[in-house]
Amino acid sequence: MGLLVDGKWQDKWYDTSKTGGKFEREAARFRNWVTADGSPGPEGEGGFKAESGRYHLYVSLACPWAHRTLIFRKLKGLEKHISVSVVYPDMVENGWEFQPDDSAHKDDLHDFRFMHQVYTKAAPDYTGRVTVPALWDKHQSTVASNESAEIIRMFNSAFDGLEGVNKELDFYPEALRPDIDAVNERVYNTVNNGVYKAGFATAQDQYEKAYVELFESLDWLEARLAKQRYLTGSTITEADWRLFTTLARFDAVYYSHFKCNRQRISEFPALSGYLRELYQVPGVADTVDIRQIKQHYYVSQRTINPTQVIPVGPQLDFTAPHGRDGL
Ligand SMILES: N[C@@H](CCC(=O)N[C@@H](CS)C(=O)NCC(=O)O)C(=O)O
Questions:
Q1: Number of domains comprising the chain
Q2: Which CDD domains does its entry note (predicted)?
Q3: One digit per residue, pLDDT tens: the chain, 327 residues?
Q4: Is the C or the N end of the chain the one with fewer CB within 10 Å?
């Protein structure tokens, strides 16, 4: 676990000493937008045109942020247009790494050993954390974007002109945008990142603040999902997929490892049915790997789990009936 400073790798855990024990997530640095015609997006440079075979996605199957991008790649039909490499679940002294002899965790594009080499290839003097997901542009030989919230927006529409892409599927429809944005804001701050704020806090008050806000939001989501099928109404949107990746990890990891233990998702009737329903959307189950998820958190985060022992439970069954058809 560490970061790059002027292009050199340093093995350092998150520093919460300057923020009173509070975990603050660093903003992503590569913020260009892939667009249908290569015109510039909301920020960054232009020149990143959506073309088949041009982009390569680096992910971890453990990471909830990378998971979003895999779901969009799958559901939009982008698999044959955007290749992917999956890092090894353990993120220790050298950060994310590949296993060159293991086809499941190989860097198929550069054959690098470490993810930080991808970042320094893009920017030799890079300073900052080396995170997944990262969307590599083979033409410009750089990271186009390493911000999942933006990568899923690109996947949602920029590649729609390519063969076999499901252009009918729109997870960010115009009419629902204000509602989606509002839900995302709260879910990001208190749930997606909220579990990390609880788990990485190094002061009691910071942990408790995150814990309270997290469960207030889960209660709010539970009430909403008891009345309507999805977060913004009767169709699945980006807001649902963003919540899904945190819910899928909750009982196996966040409940115990991050001390988010007021209750499990399985104890929320609406949220647990909703989680199962999203899991059962064709293609989604292929993107969920609970074994790698557990291995990553319990082995990598040694300040929280110094023994690196991975708990055996809980028993999860996301394939049970979801009971949400009537909503
Ligand atoms: N803002 C980024 C955050 C990505 C992120 O923090 N990924 C984690 C894995 S779950 C990571 O790579 N962390 C490495 C580190 O912080 O050093 C996004 O949503 O794309």
A1: 2
A2: GST_C_Omega_like (cd03190)
A3: 799 999 999 988 888 888 899 999 889 999 999 999 999 999 999 999 999 999 999 999 999 999 999 999 999 999 999 999 999 999 999 999 999 899 999 999 999 999 999 999 999 999 999 999 999 999 999 999 999 999 999 999 999 999 999 999 999 999 999 999 999 999 999 999 999 999 999 999 999 999 999 999 999 999 999 999 999 999 999 999 999 999 999 999 999 999 999 999 999 999 999 999 999 999 999 999 999 999 999 999 999 999 999 999 999 999 999 999 999
A4: C
Range of the domain at 239: 174-281
Closest CA to 71 of 317, 246, 258: 246
- Bridge partners (DSSP) listed for residue 99: none
Give the residue from 180, 156, 154, 161 showing the smallest Cα distance to 42.
154
Q: Which two tokens stand for residue 189?
A: 């701050």
Residue 237 falls inside a structural domain: yes
* Residue 63 annotated as catalytic: yes
Q: Which residues contact 119 (CB under 8 A, 6 or more apart)?
A: 4, 126, 130, 134, 143
226 and 120 belong to one structural domain: no
CATH number at residue 126: 3.40.30.10
C-alpha distances in angstroms, 187 versus 17, 37, 84, 194, 198? 26, 32, 27, 8, 14
- Whether ligand 1 lies within 6 angstroms of the CB of 132 is answered as yes
CA dist., res. 149 & res. 46, Å (int): 18
User: Do 47 and 136 share a structural domain?
Assistant: yes
Check which CATH number belongs to the domain holding 218 and give it. Answer: 1.20.1050.10
Closest atom of ligand 1 relative to the 115 alpha carbon: 12
* Catalytic annotation present for 260: no
Determine the distance from the C-alpha atom of residue 120 to the mean position of all C-alpha atoms in its chain, rounded to a whole number. 22
Residue 131 Cα to ligand 1 middle (Å): 4
